Structure to design on (511 residues):
């Protein structure tokens, strides 16, 4: 019972801040709502007994990536928007189609998914290590090694791309 | 309420008050030491040898008028110093500063001298210090002044750059200590090698310790890396527009961050509360001595070294400190694997 109350409270905050992120006019305020959103997601991880993931969430997302967002937002002058972005309804039709598609997808998952898919219970499988941090490390380097390597390749490519774009002559 | 709960609440209050007054003590200490290094006398008028000077400063700050620029963002302008101060206090919550104690038999079971025993303590400290960037960035942006904005931007760039080396130097200690919990890392540093060298990680990680201290100075925006508030170029940097107690909160946060960085360095590299001559129950005296020595080093450095240039700071951070930290981590990992420490 208590767990359910905590979960729905956190979920309500997460969704509420997510809505505020996209509806707030001031870009800096919007980025700060994103920080709050990430902090509440970290609280969700704490609730799931994953303190390591919670700390990493705060460290990487709330403390690292969003600071870079803030950096960009502050350096770029957003007071005077370009002409093309003045009309808020410019992508109204595409937005409507996309949101209906996502809604249908979620509804399909909710309707068809229950019962037909075995619940993922990787944590329950016997791991040779105990402790949240050790388990995350173990899973990352055994079951999820290929996704992990692909993600790191992707980041490497992005980094090289950024360097090539920034440096005219190498 | 159980006695343990009462003791825990009392300890929390005690740590809070100690941190609060550590800023005042540090101000006096720094002014006296600066005066000594520059062959002056420092504060002498208020109280014997000027010891009440910090108190006079606080009273003065409290009675100053609080100003807010007309074009400032009111909410963020008020929020920024609160974020800075909160992050400074919160980080110390997971720092252990003494062996388990029963307070001379008052408690049934021993209690840990630590506000919150989190098993990922190091990551928590790291996460909170990464959040403290917001206080400075928002202060710079919300003031709507070019000096504040430049100070805030410089600070965030500096903190992001040095956070990497800071984290990598911590990671090397984690490998040796084989834990993310500060209490366990301190526990791994008890005893001696060959009977006389204390088992402190600073002897296994000399490069890591140097990288940690340099990055720590940059993280707390102290001289010679105090660009966010370079007076000659930026007036007072991110807190140019702040006055009265809001300014005092930034000031206090800076000093408390210094104390926290020193306390974490003591736990990670200098064996925490372990030391010769004293029994385990009085280990907190060793802890205080070590923290005080590191704080002395901080002040000594500020009044000895001139400020770097901004591009030198960036070049040093990315091209020297970061590669050294990465190499140190690789060598440590290879060593742990080979010797099975």
């Amino acid at each position: 019972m208590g767990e359910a109350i905590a979960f729905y409270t956190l979920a309500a905050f997460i969704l509420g801040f997510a809505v505020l992120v996209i509806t707030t006019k001031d870009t800096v305020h919007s980025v700060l709502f994103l920080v709050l959103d990430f902090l509440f997601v970290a609280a969700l991880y704490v609730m799931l007994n994953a303190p390591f993931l919670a700390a990493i969430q705060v460290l990487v997302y709330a403390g690292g990536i969003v600071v870079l967002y803030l950096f960009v937002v502050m350096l770029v002058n957003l007071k005077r928007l370009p002409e093309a972005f003045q009309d808020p309804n410019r992508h109204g039709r595409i937005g409507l189609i996309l949101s209906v598609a996502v809604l249908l997808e979620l509804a399909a998952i909710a309707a068809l998914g229950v019962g037909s898919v075995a619940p993922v219970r990787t944590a329950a499988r016997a791991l040779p290590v105990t402790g949240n941090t050790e388990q995350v490390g173990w899973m990352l380097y055994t079951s999820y090694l290929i996704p992990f390597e692909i993600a790191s390749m992707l980041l490497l490519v992005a980094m090289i791309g950024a360097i090539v774009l920034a440096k005219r002559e190498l | 309420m159980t006695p343990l709960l009462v003791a825990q609440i009392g300890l929390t209050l005690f740590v809070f008050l100690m941190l609060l007054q550590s800023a005042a003590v540090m101000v006096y200490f720094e002014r006296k030491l600066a005066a000594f290094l520059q062959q002056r006398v420092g504060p002498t008028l208020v109280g014997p040898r000027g010891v009440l000077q910090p108190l006079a400063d606080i009273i003065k700050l409290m009675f100053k008028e609080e100003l807010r620029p007309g074009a400032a963002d009111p909410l963020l302008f008020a929020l920024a110093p609160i974020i800075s101060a909160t992050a400074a206090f919160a980080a110390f919550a997971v720092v252990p500063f003494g062996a388990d104690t029963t307070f001379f038999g008052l408690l049934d079971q021993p209690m840990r001298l630590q506000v919150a025993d989190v098993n990922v303590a190091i990551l928590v400290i790291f996460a909170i210090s990464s959040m403290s960037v917001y206080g400075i960035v928002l202060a710079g942006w919300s003031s709507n002044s070019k000096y504040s904005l430049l100070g805030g931007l410089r600070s965030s760039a500096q903190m992001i750059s040095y956070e990497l080396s800071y984290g990598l130097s911590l990671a090397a200690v984690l490998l040796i200590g084989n834990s993310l919990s500060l209490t366990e890392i301190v526990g791994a540093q008890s005893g001696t090698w060959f009977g006389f060298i204390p088992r402190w990680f600073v002897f296994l990680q000399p490069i890591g310790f140097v990288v940690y201290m340099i990055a720590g100075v940059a993280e707390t925006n102290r001289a010679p890396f105090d660009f966010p508030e370079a007076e000659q170029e930026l007036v007072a940097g991110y807190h140019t527009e702040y006055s009265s107690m809001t300014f005092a909160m930034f000031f206090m946060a800076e000093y408390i961050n210094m104390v926290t960085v020193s306390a974490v360095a003591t736990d990670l590299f200098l064996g925490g509360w372990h030391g010769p001559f004293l029994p385990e129950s009085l280990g907190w005296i060793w802890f205080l001595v070590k923290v005080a020595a590191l704080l002395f080093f901080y002040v000594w450095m500020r009044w000895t070294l001139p400020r770097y240039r901004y591009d030198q700071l960036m070049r040093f951070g990315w091209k020297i400190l970061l590669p050294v930290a990465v190499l140190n981590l690789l060598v440590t990992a290879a060593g742990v694997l080979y010797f099975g420490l």
The interface with chain A takes residues 73, 76, 118-120, 123-124, 126-128, 130-131, 133-134, 137-138, 141, 149, 152-153, 156-157, 160, 163, 180 of chain B (CB under 8 Å). The mean pLDDT of chain B is 81. The radius of gyration of chain B is 21 Å. Residues 200 and 270 of chain B are 5 Å apart (CA to CA).
